[in-house]
Amino acid sequence: MKLAPLLLTNIGQLLTLRSVQTGPRRGPSLVDLDIIQNAAVLCLAGKIVSVGTVKEALRDPWLKKHRKKVTEIDCGGHVVLPGFVDSHTHPVFMQPRLVDFEKRIAGADYEAIAEAGGGIRSSLAGVREASRLPLTQKVLSVLRELARHGTTTVEAKSGYGLSLESELKSLEAIRAAASQWQGTVIPTFLGAHVVPPEYSGRSQSYVEIVCKEMLPAVAKRKLAKFVDVFCDRGAFSEIECSTIFGAALEHGFAVRAHLGQLSSPKAGFIEATLECCRPTSFDHMDYVRDHEVTALAKSDTVVTFVPGANYFLGLAKYPPARKYIDADVAVALATDYNPGTSPTVSMPMAMSLACTHMKMFPAEVISSATINGAWALGVADRKGSVEAGKDADLAIFDVRDYREIPYWFGVNRCVQTIIGGVALRSSA
Ligand SMILES: [Zn+2]
Fold first, then answer.
1. Do 179 and 328 belong to one domain?
2. What integer pLDDT is reported at residue 1 of this predicted model?
3. Is residue 270 domain-shared with residue 218, that is, in the same domain?
4. Residue 78 lies in a domain
5. Local structure of 377: helix, strand or coil
6. 232 alpha carbon – ligand 1 mean position (Å)
7. Domain ranges, residue 15
């Protein structure tokens, strides 16, 4: 099917986030959104071909000649930005975790709930019993909901199966859902989410299954780009994480980790891992030491904040974003969509939390949710900014000033999402 050319015009503020440097944005460059007022964007065959003011667009000789063939969207003075890149989600599960929700209200903390059989382990039965089709439908409905909130690229993890069969099934559900969705899905294998109950007290044996059975099977079927490990108290140790990373790299995967959510990693682990494994991202990172921040600033590893989890767990402590940003660490922002600790598809909500609880500026959260999210997934060559040659993934927000995106929390101001040069829906 041939795509009609698409022209977005009458854009009040176009946040282009065009490249200012190579590599992810750091420090002061996070606030440089490169905004064009009264702008237009022309998309052809799913790609952005020109970006500028409406005046410039109207002078474009190609556009003058082909105007009749072009589908035009009048953005009504609204704000347009690159579609969000949500670089951390867990969409493969069947049921919400309402018992945990109420237990937490009654005073139990994350670890107490996990020890009582709740938490990640309580999602296992649903995934293990489900066939691939309902899992696929679940994932697809999440992807569609994400798109309605302005997200066009999504990292999706397995991790609620925790057996060879159900991890493969989860990744196949991600692949099947991705093939039915217009946006881009980056799959991640998270077999090392927690130790499943049948390996209780024998985490070493489970790590061996992950390395010797699961990783080769996932690699053979090309079901994931990344391997992720939840490395923290109550999950996997630093040594286990290093073992899994070693095996993952041997199989050609890139690596990322859930780190520093509940406790500080062992001294030296971050520096050694940056050196040996070049992880694309460390996520959460609520707990960090000064020398680790210095090491991270010298690396290309992105630190991905997921404040939705802190919010939903009712924590007073949030990741020390200013410390990272002021030290020039590359930072990104994601929803951490999952049934236990962050059941939200809303990047604007994550952005709002980062502003109010982590003292990030609106411009910083926008860079973190777009171009730096793309760096956190290794797709910055085609995603995360509005510039010629990139995929035509855009979001239109019913606001006049970009700062309103994180300001109006708890409502969805995204009125249209464009993926690959096609408008998904239109509403007032
Ligand atoms: Zn997570």
1. yes
2. 62
3. yes
4. yes
5. coil
6. 12
7. 6-82+385-423
Mean pLDDT across 420-425 = 90
**Alpha carbon distance 293, 275 (integer Å):** 14
CA–CA separation, 281 and 228 (whole Å) = 9
Residue matched to tokens 């237990």: 103
At 152, which amino acid appears? T
Ligand 1 mean position, distance from CA 328 (Å): 24
Query: Ligand 1: distance of its center to the CA of 420 in Å?
Result: 27
pLDDT for the residue 428: 34
Q: If you count them, how many residues does the chain have?
A: 428
Whether residues 174 and 206 share a domain: the answer is: yes
Q: What are phi and psi of 341, to 5 degrees?
A: -125, -10
Backbone angles phi, psi at 273, to 5 degrees: -70, -40
- Cα–ligand 1 centroid distance for 376 (angstroms): 14
Asked if 159 and 126 count as a contact pair (C-beta separation under 8 A), the reply is no
CATH of the domain at 20: 2.30.40.10
135 CA from centroid of ligand 1 (Å): 18
What's the predicted TM-score (pTM) here?
0.97
Instruction: Name the phi and psi angles at 199, rounded to 5.
Output: -110, 15
Q: 73, 80 in Cβ contact below 8 A?
A: no
Residues 288 and 400 in one domain: no
Interval 212-228 mean pLDDT: 98
Instruction: Select from 208, 222, 215 the least CA-distant residue to 250.
Output: 215
**How far, in Å, CA of 383 to CA of 247, rounded?**
29
**Cα–Cα distance between 279 and 334 in angstroms, integer?**
17
Query: Per-residue pLDDT tens for 55-103?
Result: 999 899 999 999 999 999 999 999 999 999 999 999 999 999 998 999 9
Number of domains the chain is built from: 2
Query: pLDDT (tens digit, 9 = 90+) per residue, 10-62?
Result: 999 999 999 877 899 999 999 999 999 999 999 999 999 999 999 999 899 99
Is residue 53 a part of any domain in this protein? yes
- How far does the centroid of ligand 1 lie from the alpha carbon of residue 42, in Å? 36
User: How far is 375 from 146, CA to CA, in rounded Å?
Assistant: 19
Is 1 inside a domain boundary?
no
Q: What is the 3-state secondary structure (H, E, C) of 180-229?
A: CCCCEEEEEEEEECCCCHHHCCCHHHHHHHHHHHHHHHHHHCCCCCEEEE
CA–centroid distance, residue 90 to ligand 1 (Å):
6
- Ligand 1 center from residue 9 Cα (angstroms): 38
